[in-house]
Design brief:
This protein is α/β, with parallel strands linked by helices. Helices cover about 45% and strands about 15% of the residues. It contains nine helices and six strands; from the N terminus they run βαααααβαβαβαββα. The chain starts with 5 loop residues before the first strand and ends with a helix. The mean pLDDT is about 95.
Length: about 220
């Protein structure tokens, strides 16, 4: 009897890649372009994972919708320009990420996907820059879903792959990821190398501190 299909979903920023330099730089540029004070680094990193409109609503709540919209567009332009200039170097993979992705993909019953607050354009460019095109069978992005922690991204990924909730795991570095996993009724693995403190991951099924701990954590959840 063949093993059931398993779905492993990764957050991107703060989980697969360390993009904090690019994110802080783009936020600095878009707030500066509107002659607004730039939020501090901790505030910027606290919203990583949210879709951009939700992020700007948190970072600039006192400003009008039109100002927030200009911030969103300015951020997209600054981030895109940075990516064109720096390529993969603007968002390097975390140590061990590629080896674990390759090892998981080699398991016949395991399917890999991503669920990210990035745009389709941003995710596709990142995946291409790192040569990861063949690994992710489902890619869920902010363009097509409500912001995390709404479960839509996970629900859609499961629908696309035909994997039941009990065999699905969401891996991420933020409270938004763990809350999304819980809302979707799937296990959540929190990672400590990202942008939220370990204390924010209290809803996780388990927490890992290095990428090489992931295969064992998945085995523990599925056995």
């Amino acid at each position: 009897m063949s093993a059931p299909l398993r779905l492993v979903l990764f957050d991107v920023d703060g989980t697969l890649v360390d993009s904090q330099g690019s994110i802080v730089s783009a936020m600095t540029a878009c707030f500066g372009a509107q002659s607004l004070p730039v939020p501090d680094r901790d505030a910027i990193l606290s919203i990583v994972g949210l879709s951009l409109p939700n992020a700007m609503a948190q970072l600039a709540p006192q400003h009008s919708d039109s100002v927030q919209h200009r911030l969103v567009e300015g951020y997209k332009e600054a981030y895109h320009a940075q990516r064109l200039a720096q390529g993969a170097a603007s968002s390097p993979l975390y140590p061990g990420a590629r080896a674990v992705i390759e090892a998981l993909q080699a398991v016949p019953e395991v399917l890999l996907g991503v669920a990210t607050g990035k745009s389709q354009r941003g995710l596709d460019a990142l995946i291409e820059a790192h040569g990861l095109e063949r690994y992710f069978v489902t890619r869920q992005v902010a363009d097509h879903h409500p912001s995390k922690p709404h479960p839509s991204m996970i629900d859609t990924a499961r629908s696309e792959t035909g994997v039941v909730a009990a065999n699905t795991v969401m891996i991420g570095d933020t409270k938004f990821d763990m809350d999304m996993a819980r809302a979707a009724g799937v296990a959540g693995i929190g990672v400590t190398w990202g942008y939220h403190d370990r204390s924010a991951l209290d809803g996780a099924t388990c927490i890992i501190e290095t990428f090489d701990q992931l295969p064992r954590a998945l085995d523990d959840i599925w056995t």
